[in-house]
Amino acid sequence: MDDLLADFLTETHEGLVALDVALLRLERSPGDKPTLSEIFRLVHTIKGTCGFLGLSRLERVAHAAENILGLYRDGVLTVTPAGVSLVLRALDRIKEIVGALETGGTEPAGDDAPLIAELDAAASGDSGTLPASSDAAEIEAQFDVAAKDATPAIEQPAAPIEIAAPKPAPSPKAAPAAEATPEEHSGGRAPPQSIRVSVDVLEDLMMLVSELVLTRNQLMQLSRARSDGAYSVPLQRLSHITSDLQDGVMKTRMQPIGNAWAKMPRLVRDLSIELGKKIDLEMRGADTELDRQVLELIKDPLTHMVRNSGDHGLEGPEDRRRAGKSETGRIMLNAYHEGGHILIEISDDGRGLNTDRIRQKVVSQGLASEAEIAGMSEAEIHRFIFRAGFSTAAAVTAVSGRGVGMDVVKTNVERIGGTIDVSSVEGRGTGFIIKIPLTLAIVSALIVEVAGERFAIPQIGVLELVRVGGGSGSRVERIKDAPVLRLRDRLLPLVSLGRVLGLDEGAAPELGENGDTGFVVVTQVGANVFGIIVDRLFDTEEIVVKPVAPILRHIGMFSGNTILGDGSVIMILDPNGIARVTGVVADGAGARAAEGKAASAVRSNEKTSLLLFRAGDETPKAVPLGLIARLDDIPVEQIENSGGTPVVQYRGQLMPLLSMGGFAPAESGRTRQTVLVFSEGERSLGIMVDAILDVVDEALSVQAGQGRPGFLGSAVVAGKVTDVIDTAWWLGQGGGDWFRPAASASVSRRLLVVEDSAFFRELVVPALAAEGYEVVAVEGPVQALRLRERGEAFDAIVSDIEMPEMDGYAFARDVRGGGTWQELPMIALTGRVDPAAVARGRAAGFTDYVGKYDREALLASLAECLAVPVAA
Amino acid sequence: MRNQATQSAVTDADLFLTLTVAGQACGVPVLVVRDVLGPQVITRIPLAPPEVAGSLNLRGRIVTAVDLRRRLGLPPRPADIQPMSIVVEMAGELYSMLADAVGEVVPLRQEDSAANPPTLDAVWREVSRGVHRRDGQLLIVLDVERVLAIGGGR
């Protein structure tokens, strides 16, 4: 393609984007003289250049469009939406031809006669036939011009004539006037202080700078080794200049996100006309800058999502009125920086996601079973729209309203190291949040070594570094084969990087008690935290991320590769990928770590991380991993006796030890005793067990026990009959004061506990009872409401959220809806305490929201809720 | 390229770089070769396909190294032979093919090429564009694109 044509294409592209924006502005304020002039000038430029280059087809279309615009500008013709649509169509045709020019180098064949005839007809026929004011009214009606703009809009059609009048040539002969107009109206604007540079040049510069940085680093290393004073000063200067140059080149890659949004107003306008909906598009933070590579990659997903919002998210004016909303729907794009990331929100105030329909679809498509989905929160169900396959079903579009191609969007966003999430309230709207790294080019990374190989871990997501083994105090422990780390009283699942990468074959160094020292990189992926075991840590380095070769892209562990200061190539690890491959974090719906705290998202029919152990008899015993603070291995000689109870000194306190099988540690002839440690504030209690067997994820279905104290019953876990221990009972054995707070509730309060899981009922009830409350527990809201009908009185209600038949939200709404319980404090007890869930809970009428395992929070919340009426 | 080879004059398209892999002479079109490098520091890539030896730094660009011996199902290179890197560009990415030795640039006419003998090993047949007889030795012209069609790109 010759240079002239290439220049023309670049220029025309810019012109077309500017035209789109200007035309829409014109439509809103039809008499805006500067806008009209700008449009005219832009089209005129395109036409002029086409003629020069001999692009006849383009020239004819542009000419016809220019004719109309000239008449608009001179006030001979009134601007109408139909007219603007026609001009927009002409622009589309121009874009089409330009597109073909770009790929083919010549104008494509095609017949523009009908379009040109229409344009000509509009230019000649309609002028002046309609009274100006009715046009303005029409515009006003269609585009919902705010009231204060309405009056000028009606008067405006006359204005251009007045302005045009003093001109030497007020006739529709537009061409001579065109030369004068730009100067006239661009007077206030300074000429843009920028030049166009091709992307290739920038990329080359970037590469050269990277190379320069490497060379600089090598030189610095050499100079340090030689300590030759003569070179050190100029080298320092070279170093500074190189850094500045690097920064400068980086900056050239940054572009405002507004560039990716430039087409949105047009898109939304077309959508609104096509669908007969009224849509307002609000764009905030358009000047937020991000790397052009990132920009390119999110452009399409963003467009797709805005289209989705307009198409499926927003209702028609009728439906909106009926729903008590304003007729005009709103789509909002918002971009802002937050901690090294760019956040982009795409939200609408439309109908929101239809959870029930998604649920049905998920089950019918076999993406999850009824039982699984019953245990999911709304947010989790909503996330199914990101699943591949979910969107491909055509019926979904019409039925659930959303999820069209969202899997593709998610894939694209994840490809650039971003995440996407959805939040939706039925009837209120849907919002998507995309979080992407500021730049793909340069990230701060931690360099680690395992099995003699070095890798980079992006700093984003690294929470802390822990030294393990040696004399450092922390050590890696194993629950069966799964390595874990006790970190501040919580169990952190670990991933051995060497093993994950297959570098550990043969002698695997155990980071056990006497093993080598190593490091754990505590990493967060989404809401889940896990540790990555590495052999050594080096410095952090700013690295230039380069994509891996296509033949390596199938390896999910790497997000890219880079060249370090010393010139060596190094792979960049992707914590998301590691988490996915190793299963420390489940993907998508039901995301839940095998880790203690996160595992609190437990329901009886949902999988729970269980610690299996043997104690006393041969039957395996199970306890939810989340309840255990630590695992300890105590030398037998440290176990002392105090008042007939074995105790061990721990952190300056005596920790009572309970035995499940009634044996004394000394008798069993072992030298070390394994202890499950439960912690509660300052107090700790240990249960002595014979052996830790395994940690498994199982859906716990407890069969009612035979009334054996200390056991809730049995369940089949890992194919074996297992006793599920009643932690509360055991803790109760640990000393009279275990469940007794400093000041116990003096007046007996009556509580109603609504919880479908027998397991949690058994856990919560004794805890509350021990606190001095009188507790009535029921299996579900239906039973609870039956109690209300019977006239039972309570002081407070503690309720689970996810329950079959009727969930906690519906229950709360029912309670608040009327009846004797209307004013009772209600505390939601749930595995998921996230802000959205809390907000939803409050909206439904819950007084407070507490995590399931958080006994202390529950008690505190109860105390607070019950204190209110006393104070009042 | 093939069309040009029908011309009688020797053009660039007829020039091939010869290399040796486990005693077998091979040729690659000179036009696709960007660089020939001596022994390089190669970073191992865990979990990569076995044919991928690792990656190396060529003037600031990352080059993925493919070991021709492993690619062609040949025994591993003896420790005393340092591999040579023949850097080629494919779809904007740089790859290095590791060979035991690099020979010279020779003209090979397309019309002198013989079809793959039916007895040729399947792995070789997959990557061979034809066989030439040269100095009493058989030289296999490698189809670079197919040589690099491994792993996720297959």
From TrEMBL, chain A:
Domain spans labelled Histidine kinase: 189-440
Residues bearing PTM 4-aspartylphosphate: 800
Positions of region (Disordered): 164-192, 306-326
Record keyword Cytoplasm present: no
Domain HPt per the UniProt entry, residue ranges: 1-101
Domain CheW-like, chain residue ranges per copy: 442-584, 607-736
Transmembrane intervals: none
Basic and acidic residues composition bias: residue spans: 309-326
UniProtKB keywords: Phosphoprotein
Pfam families noted in UniProt: CheW (PF01584), H-kinase_dim (PF02895), HATPase_c (PF02518), Hpt (PF01627), Response_reg (PF00072)
Superkingdom of the source species: Bacteria
Keyword Phosphoprotein attached: yes
Residue ranges of domain Response regulatory in the record: 750-867
InterPro entries listed in its UniProt record: Bact_Chemotaxis_CheA (IPR051315), CheA-like_dim (IPR004105), CheW-lke_dom (IPR002545), HATPase_dom (IPR003594), His_kinase_dom (IPR005467), Sig_transdc_His_kin_Hpt_dom (IPR008207), Sig_transdc_resp-reg_receiver (IPR001789)
Entry-linked CDD domains: HATPase_CheA-like, HPT, REC
Residues bearing the modification Phosphohistidine: 44
PANTHER family named in the record: CHEMOTAXIS PROTEIN CHEA, SENSOR HISTIDINE KINASE CHEA
Protein name as catalogued: Chemotaxis protein CheW
Species whose genome carries this gene: Falsiroseomonas oleicola
